[in-house]
Design goal:
about 475 residues, alpha+beta, Cathepsin D, subunit A, domain 1, aspartic-type endopeptidase activity, hydrolase, Peptidase_aspartic_dom_sf, Aspartic_peptidase_A1, Acid protease
């Protein structure tokens, strides 16, 4: 947290040839993912089902000769008003949205699997609230000119108004349009929490409201001029979400300054005259800026919609055990999910590991005091992941690779790499079969051979997403 507070002091003044990025502090709703000494298998299996449900809400389809991801068509009288995403769900990463005049603070969930920017308003009394009738600037493009404040959308119960949002770090306020959705009073969705939702998917093909994305509006209004957003996690419950660039230089600069300060404090009195050698401000600035250029970029591939890239290799204890594995990046998944064949190949390289019996056979255990040393390889760049200790206040000898011990006194821990069962057993779509595809395209989610690289990865790597060029950049945290 000390790095985070230092970084945010300097975030708004770091533009060189580009406009400065906008930086939000983010947090995980409900706090860090539970890390008890003894694993709760029932809870872990429930969380795994939640993840699978999020991914199974979409399917693959064709637009011309292009394979894309689309929301599944739900059934029932309320089907057309159902949007992808779960406002207020525990485990979502969120930022604070400041909107309207006077300013209202609304929790804004981030979701890398959806593409819409919307505010959900219910009568449940749960969540955080945006009261349009309390805002003097609601429905206005400026303080003096009005526009059609209630443009209808393709989703019933949603309208497209405008209001002023107040941007942190750059200290600007701008009018932005968004989808405002209110379910009918007799509908079950009125029992859900209120709040805002920001879809961060790689393509607008997943959009249901068909409104202009938030970041595109920021580009149009010359608030940012770099089509990039990024994420970095400081720990299991705090992080930084940046729009229009990354937080790499200030975070690195803050870390260097903090390390120097701690070194001076720790060595005070040990040196004659109390002087401890440290880097100059110029040295720190140069080192931070050089580090900011160490990005490794990969092109997005697969069905258009999500941030899917190719992981060139997976290394366990110095040996390459898998190569050319497609992965989807998703900060709201608390595990690293692997296809069954890949997961078993991975654990076969971990000494004395074993698969649990049903119904927990998606999990594998390994000797707690011998956690594997894991590297992920991207575009010729190897980065060690899942290293270090678990969250402060918890203990497990398995470190960050562990979900907890099997039982009290057990020498075995559950590994955070978990088998995925998504995409199994789906039939081949007719059109896809005619085109020569050997796996389901139409009617399936295409995840039978795909890894889901979740939240634990974002603790080791800062990730940047270029939505215009459709590429993903990575840099060691």
């Amino acid at each position: 947290m000390r790095y985070l507070s230092f970084a945010l002091v300097t975030l708004g003044s770091l533009a060189l040839e580009h406009l400065p990025p906008i930086h939000y502090t983010i947090s995980r709703r409900g706090g860090s993912f539970p890390a008890p000494d003894i694993a709760n298998l029932t809870y872990l299996l429930e969380q795994l089902r939640v993840v699978e449900q999020r991914y199974n809400s979409t399917t693959r389809d064709f637009i011309g000769n292009k394979v894309v991801r689309k929301p599944k068509r739900p059934h029932g009288t309320q089907a057309l008003s159902t949007l992808l995403g779960d406002v207020g769900r525990d485990g979502n990463w969120l930022a604070s949205l400041h909107i309207g005049d006077p300013i209202q603070e609304v929790d804004m969930d981030l979701d890398m699997l959806t593409a819409d920017w919307w505010i959900f308003s219910t009568s449940s009394g749960k969540g955080s609230f945006y009261l349009d009738f309390n805002s003097k600037t609601y429905g206005k493009t400026s303080l003096s000119f009005r526009f059609d404040a209630e443009s209808p959308l393709s989703v019933p119960t949603c309208r497209e108004p405008k209001d002023i949002i107040h941007l942190p770090t750059i200290k600007r306020s701008i009018p932005i349009s968004f989808a405002l959705c209110r379910p009918a009073k007799q509908w079950v969705s009125t029992l859900l929490p209120s709040g805002a939702y920001l879809g961060l998917a790689a393509s607008t093909v997943l959009s249901q409201t068909k409104t202009v994305p938030l970041m595109m509006q920021m580009i149009e209004k010359n608030v940012i001029n770099t089509p990039v957003w990024s994420l970095v996690l400081i720990n299991g419950k705090d992080g930084i979400f940046s729009i229009g660039g990354t937080s790499a230089p200030p975070v690195r600069r803050a870390k260097m300054e903090t390390d120097d300060e701690l070194a001076r404090a720790g060595n005070h009195g040990m040196k004659r005259d109390g002087v401890v050698a440290s880097r100059s401000a110029a040295d720190i600035e140069m080192e931070a800026d050089l580090s900011a250029n160490e990005w490794k970029w990969s092109k997005v591939q697969g069905a258009e919609g999500w941030w899917q890239i190719l992981m060139r290799g997976i290394w366990v204890d110095g040996s390459k055990v898998l190569e050319n594995q497609p992965i989807v990046l998703d900060i709201n998944t608390p595990f690293i999910l692997a296809p069954p064949v890949a997961a078993r190949a991975f654990y076969s390289s971990v000494s004395w590991s074993r698969q649990l019996p049903p119904p927990y056979d998606q999990f594998h255990a390994y000797p707690c005091f011998n956690p594997p040393k894991i590297h992920f390889e991207f575009a010729g760049w190897n980065v060690e992941v899942l290293k270090g200790k678990r969250e402060q206040g918890t203990f497990s000898p398995g470190g960050r690779f562990s979900l907890g011990r099997m039982a009290s006194g057990s020498g075995y821990c559950l590994g955070i790499v978990v088998e995925s069962r998504m995409g199994k057993g789906m039939s081949l779509g007719t059109e896809a079969a005619n085109m020569g595809f050997k796996t389901s395209m139409e009617g399936g989610n295409g995840l039978e051979d795909v890894w889901i690289v979740g939240e634990p990865f974002f603790r080791d790597v800062q990730v940047a997403f270029n939505w215009k060029e459709k590429k993903v950049g990575m840099q060691r945290v």
